[in-house]
Amino acid sequence: MDLEMLIELVRERKCLYNMSEKNYSDHQLKENLWREIASTLKQPVENCKKSWTNLRDAFRRAAKKSVTKSGQKSKNIKKMEI
């Protein structure tokens, strides 16, 4: 699966990840959006969702590791944006 394409397709559909979006709680809309993404990538919906979850979790783990405690020397880390 093309993960960069998956990221772009999800990025264009903010209600899949942004809790402040008004349609974030609309499960039917989100399911339809996942079907669109799966169709574009020619993959099953569940594979797309699983890949997205793995990417999101990896990003969160990496972001958590980059946080320093007060008084620690900061690391040279590039800011990651979605």
Automatic annotation (TrEMBL):
One of its GO terms (biological process) is regulation of transcription by RNA polymerase II. One of its GO terms (cellular component) is nucleus. Residues 5-82 form the MADF domain. The lineage of its organism: Eukaryota, Metazoa, Ecdysozoa, Arthropoda, Hexapoda. This is MADF domain-containing protein. Residues 63-82 are annotated as: Disordered. Transmembrane segments: none annotated. InterPro entries: MADF-dom, TF_Adf1. PROSITE patterns: MADF.
